[in-house]
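Dear support,

Our group has been running a series of protein-ligand predictions, and this particular one with calcium ion is the one our PI (initials K.S.) wants archived with full inputs and outputs. We had some confusion internally about which version of the output was final, so please treat the block below as the authoritative record. The input we submitted was:
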Amino acid sequence: MITFKSKLTTLALATMLPFTSWAESAKPSFEDYVLELKEQGREQGISEPILEQAFSDVTYKPRAVKADKNQPEKRLTLDEYIPRAVPDWKVKQAQKLYKQNYADLKRIGDEYGVQPRFIVALWGVESNFGTFTGNYRVMDALATMAYDGRREEFFRTEAMHALKILDEGHIPVENFKGSWAGAMGQPQFMPSSFMAYAADGNGDGKKDIWNTKADVFASAANYLSQSGWQEEYTWGRQVQVPSGISLELQGRSEEKGKYLQEWSELGIKRFDGRPLPRLDEDIKAWLIMPDDQNGRSYLVYNNYNVLMKWNRSYYFALAVSHLADRIKFG
Ligand SMILES: [Ca+2]
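Confirmed final output from the archive:
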């Protein structure tokens, strides 16, 4: 009986202690953790001078952890979100930069099979055309996020990719900057995306997504191209749906896709009321209604699914799509 009681007391005390106090007793110090990362990099064949530079003075960044935990939870409707994410000044800036960089954009767009307006739209949404790229040292951000532990494996792997990027000489350590989560340069690539998709757009042998616009454009275009982009199509369009349409029809899973002719027979029209285009072609589309029947509805093509691979947020994909259309249509 006494044993039972004391066990119960221990249990009660344990549940009252803040969870972090035990988690941290089993955890190495940040300094030791960074040494482990360095050793792992050494095992992966990263050169000693790069290891020394990359790991000199790696610092834990409480603000990165705070940013990770405080991501906004309030859900905006698309009617609220789109004008905030793509204000008119951003549209004007996109149109101006599209013209200024057209020679590079056209060359790179042709090479990768991506319409230039989508390259510029991604650039605008990701980093405001390269003006907000993050000021964290990438190794600080990744070591902090890995040490924080909620997604340790993911960030540890990203840290190893980051070391390879330095080892390949694309960027000097002192300029190796990114967001609190380690998203880098003007397209905000995580190191693993850099390794998979970064490209050299100006032919100097380096993939400099921080400072070389041609490399930024080629890297974004290569990402889309490798992910299945089809340049003969657009992303989709906003549509009118008949009142009372079933929400069962919406969704992006394979079996929810229908040909445009089928959607047209279900009463779906372009947003301005005209019939859907290209009804005689075998083009599959998906209906999405993120704000239910009362909000904006879209028929999206495969290219929209590609944008969702870049970033799983439909807010992101629709902001990019909207900006790409404004570049073309004003
Ligand atoms: Ca280059």
